[in-house]
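Sample pair:
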Amino acid sequence: MVALPVLTTVAFGTGPELAVAAEHPANLSVAAKLAAELHLPLVTIPLTDTFTHLLVVTPTRLELRTLGSDAPGPVYVDFTSGAVAHRRRFGGGRNQPLARAIGLKGGAAPTVADVTAGLGRDAFVLACLGCTVWLVERSPIVAALLRDGLRRAAHDAEIGQMVRERLHFHSGDGRECLPLLTVNRRPDVVYLDPMYPHRQKSAWVGKEMRLLRQLAGDDADAPALLAVALACAGNRVVVKRPRLAPSLSGPPPTARIVAPNTRFDLYRVKPDPAAR
């Protein structure tokens, strides 16, 4: 695939008020560089100014912290332990709904462009199952967290080689990145996981999803991204939705794979003879 554009401007509007900080003096130079890249203020801990969130460079990782007395714990990307590692080992392999939606049958290992990468969890699962995945994330803050998680995972003794070979990251907007690909470099599958619609009940919304919505917005342009994906995918487009949610505006899916709480809408694309 061709190099994709890097997005470095942060525009939150009425959203979170962010700053960058270093947890220890040894991390200050890294924090200063990140603040400059993201056009965010660099502050010291404890704070003398009022912010809602801090992007904190620690000795081991990059964290996004919500400030306040009742704030949840930090959000960060970790592919080596916790829920992500458990899913890698016990998530059902190629029989899980995500794998079937992508088309992992037999020894197939399609190339996938995950253009709403978020914290990278689905992309990581697909890479573990043999896919080469290009992760595209347009929120600069989420992208910084994802880049940091991939960097650390690339040095892990158990999964490092797989991460280096199969996961490739770009910060940018999928609507702009996908059309830049020449026909013979288009992914077999374009995967979309746009922000879920608002629901009356809020218990299902974890701290990470709340922060992603604050940072990335509601993905109101998801139908436009679907249209671009349909024009650029080599074989199919897969859209992850809540099980009972409507499909994205546009052509109807050609198939669906339904899980207890999630649904994958499949849009099969006729292969372009010029790509052969």
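The first helix runs from residue 28 to 38.
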